[in-house]
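Tutorial handout. Part one gives the primary structure; part two gives the three-dimensional structure as tokens.
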Amino acid sequence: MKKKIAILGSTGSIGKALLDIVSKDRKNFEIILLTADTNYKLLYKQAKKFNVKNLIITNPKKYNLLKKVNKKNDLNIYNNFKNLSKIFRNKVDYSMSSITGINGLEPTLNIIKFSKKIAIANKESIICGWNLINKELKKNKTQFIPVDSEHFSLWYGLQNLKTKNIENIYLTASGGPFSSISLNKFKSIKINQALKHPNWKMGKKISIDSATMINKVYEVIEAKNIFNVNYKKIKILIHPKSYVHAIIKFDNGLTKIIAHDTTMRIPIFNTLYLKDDKKLKSNKIDINSLNNLNFKNIELKRFPMVKLLNLLPSKQSLFETVIVSANDTLVELFLNNKIKFTDIQKKLFKIINKKKFLKFKNKHPKKIQDIVELNNYVRLKTLENSI
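Part two.
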């Protein structure tokens, strides 16, 4: 019997990688739903290639254009995620949530009850709304697997083991494009320089987050939420080759090192084929990389964003949404040549340390509207204080 799957964000890098994997094993899969925000041409092409009958495209203008392209009216096209009950008669076997940004939180929450297993690649959902997601997962008995290479590696390394026995977790960071340039050159960093990640091919937003290292701060928050581990137990190590993705030190003296090639195909493949005894062709163990792991501690003068970890409350709060929303806005300003690269960090710390935002350390998200409304407010105030 074919496995039924749904892909939220099918036109992004994660979605395209998943579809490429499925394309090599189409006899075993039936895609029930594909979604996008603006790229209606690629979404339509994907639907035709994989014979998908249900599409969601959230941008109103692109929705109308896609409706016009669907001349045969052979596709069910929706413009929001409130129609999932019309699309799914039963739970699908697997859902991928790879919509970027806080906009991905509501679709992620909505599709959980229609999924037996959900793989989540949306950082903002796990950072800002993990308590809401976890509640839905338990309520609907839906299995969750993280997709980020670091968190998938941790998840895989902890199979059949207890998180209470973790002494320390180490997340690795390549150091991005600025791991070795002179600090006095940071003020003159250009957009094209910040986008040149040495190891990974990523979208513009996440490339900038990697260059500032806030991406790794996000991953620490995610690890704390997913595995219920105290921040004090989670460390960051610079690892330029990005071959080792996570290290777990246990309280019995043993240490696990999880390594794989720098490709998202490996975690995506394994979330899809979990326990299916399916093999993935991959490179042989890189002996040269293992002999030259070259781990280093974080240089805070180079990556001051890591200091954000000292400001985070021990329990999940709305303050994480403040950080994510302010940073998203500042990165957009940088990509539009409105502010300098170094302004991202400077303005972020200035904004989140305002009294009106610090109070959210003691407030917890009770419903999705709390996060959405705060996101809109923070973005507005960030723009007012940054231009």
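Part three, for discussion. The longest strand covers residues 29-36. Residues 3-147 form a domain with the Rossmann fold fold (CATH 3.40.50.720).
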